[in-house]
Amino acid sequence: MDMQKILVVDDEEDLCEILKFNLEIEGYEVDTAFSAEEALKMDIPSYQLLLLDVMMGEISGFKMASILQKNEKTAGIPIIFLTAKDTENDMLTGFNLGADDYISKPFSIRQVVARVKAVLRRTTDKEKPQENERLEYETLSLDIKRIKATVDGQEVSLTKKEFEILRLLLENKGNVFSREEILSRIWKDEVYVLDRTIDVNITRLRKKIGPYGKNIVTRLGFGYCFEG
């Protein structure tokens, strides 16, 4: 997996280098900028997390975050504010600007590393594609969670293998699967399963899904696919 990239923006150069050193030990790729002006010239969308000091030059960390929030390419990048300003109003300002965490100075490096890991874990989990709960083609529908197939709103009784074959074909419309591929994906380690078993299940499946049976197409010498 590619290393996650972090940008540290703080006008304390020594602190930037300390954070960079320790975060790189943890396996992150880290860049630094000593002002918001410098940071805004960088490729911000390439980073998975920003550590922003609040009190910096003409453009504060809060102002930089506000600028990033107005750009759809950078609005979703997680931000942790690092600051000596720890009043309730300051913290609320940070969170209202979309901050994912707020760490008051002075802090321990271990604390920062732990909070960075927590934020990246949360945001990475959000980015993971969710499994489709329902597959549909016109009025043919597969409810993955409830293991239920319907045609024109009427439930169709499918065996476990028939359901899994239909799911495989619907999830990969237009892709041709050989008998061997279907066997390896659906029957996996089960023994004594013949190629003929696939043909029998496909034949039954076509009959059960009525008008959509014709969408399960045989490619002679290659296998089966679901065509729209």
TrEMBL record:
PROSITE patterns: OMPR_PHOB (PS51755), RESPONSE_REGULATORY (PS50110). Keywords: DNA-binding, Phosphoprotein, Two-component regulatory system. GO terms for molecular function: phosphorelay response regulator activity; transcription cis-regulatory region binding. GO terms for cellular component: cytosol; protein-DNA complex. This is DNA-binding response regulator. The keyword Phosphoprotein applies. One of its GO terms (biological process) is regulation of DNA-templated transcription. Residues 5-120 form the Response regulatory domain. It comes from the Bacteria. It holds the Pfam family Trans_reg_C. Residues 132-228 bind DNA. The lineage of its organism: Bacteria, Pseudomonadati, Bacteroidota, Bacteroidia, Bacteroidales. The modification 4-aspartylphosphate is found at D53. Residues 132-228 form the OmpR/PhoB-type domain.
